[in-house]
């Protein structure tokens, strides 16, 4: 496991150290008492995750085991989820059926794009192994927003939403994506990842070389919608509704953050070889999409403090998280997306989604880190196909890491501005209500920003990520680089403060 050096971790900086600890204590309390995504503060995270290969079979087998949670498990086990009984196509989705027959079936047979016909974005000629040629028109009706974009925007989106790109851990284009899609970054990211068999053919650049096209076609996309017989059109309609449930005025807890968490989670599931059932995989991705829906820019502390309707409704426990679960699942029921599934499987998906979202409550952060650390120091037990509970615990921890992964990214500075602005807006609200102010913009300065960031990284994010092992070294490298950056900033400010004091 890659670890930061003791020298770096234990660097003594006199007053600065104490100051950081105080800030961190305040922050942790702030988040623990409620906030759900502590990401906000500094951003954070990383998730490492899981899964790897996807196949059309019910059982995914990969090689690496998740060294970790609890005493029994094992490997994130992609045990059979009984998908064989699930119809391939949603009964109300003729478009989906047509698409599946013409495209997905060919893909399963390792067909490849032979040529791009008249409309390079819509029509493909595939040749199966046996020489059978099928021309497919991958209608974009499942995402009409795509058709509304200019050609230049579509071309740029092909560069930032293709499979390789969305499977990369550090994704700096998230804000540009939101601009290009006119505020639909969550919708488009979900389309590119969860509905990948239906989106990636359109995202393959018409100028791509034959080799690049072949490589793209060799990718195994997330085929979860087909696995559960879910109409891609209905799924995108659901995500569109959820995206509207995010308050775009929130500087941080908005649809862009949800899109970022989804992309981070997906990339980690791609780079790390854990195993989950298809039900767990689908539920986890959905949880990332839903995990902050309905967030009002406050935090659990504020909800309890003001005795809000939500606090009363949820008895002061994980108030916002329970709200996100309720909103997300209520819309899921309204969408009838899962109505064709067996009741048991439908309930299983709902429960996994709820559990995963509730685990993003910062109040559970320390407990989760300690559990992960303990598991990492214990030799992994032999695989047990019939016990995937510990694997699911690990998967939920990964979602939590993704939620606080901003400090691992090259975009961390931008996220910092967003999260601090949300904190200060809450401070403004608290002040207007005569409540104690958690973050007061009137006394904020660059020093407090640096201290918040450094404390957040040092006491919350670093320990959380170091409790895991990642195959992708860029995850920890980004985190350490950002940590060193804030340490340096803090040191320079300490020196400036000392110089000013001497001048006085
Ligand atoms: Zn979040």
TrEMBL record:
Binding locations of Zn(2+) 2? 292
> Residues that bind Zn(2+) 1, according to the entry?
257, 291-292, 403
Q: Name one GO biological process term.
A: signal transduction
Which residues participate directly in catalysis? 253 (proton donor)
What the record notes about the co-factor is:
Binds 2 divalent metal cations per subunit. Site 1 may preferentially bind zinc ions, while site 2 has a preference for magnesium and/or manganese ions.
GO MF term (any one): metal ion binding
Q: Which UniProt keywords apply?
A: Hydrolase, Metal-binding
Q: Which PROSITE patterns match?
A: PDEASE_I_1 (PS00126), PDEASE_I_2 (PS51845)
SUPFAM superfamilies recorded for this chain? HD-domain/PDEase-like (SSF109604)
Q: Where is this region: Disordered?
A: 364-390
Q: What is its EC number?
A: 3.1.4.-
Q: Where is the signal peptide?
A: none
Enzyme class, top EC level, equals hydrolase
The UniProt record gives the binding positions of AMP as 253-257, 292, 403, 453
Q: Which segments constitute the PDEase domain? A: 167-493
Q: Does the keyword Hydrolase apply?
A: yes
The cofactors required by this protein are: a divalent metal cation
Which family does the entry's similarity section mention? Belongs to the cyclic nucleotide phosphodiesterase family.
PANTHER family from the UniProt entry: CYCLIC NUCLEOTIDE PHOSPHODIESTERASE (PTHR11347)
Protein name as catalogued: Phosphodiesterase
- The organism encoding this protein is Cylindrotheca closterium
Q: Taxonomic classification, please?
A: Eukaryota, Sar, Stramenopiles, Ochrophyta, Bacillariophyta
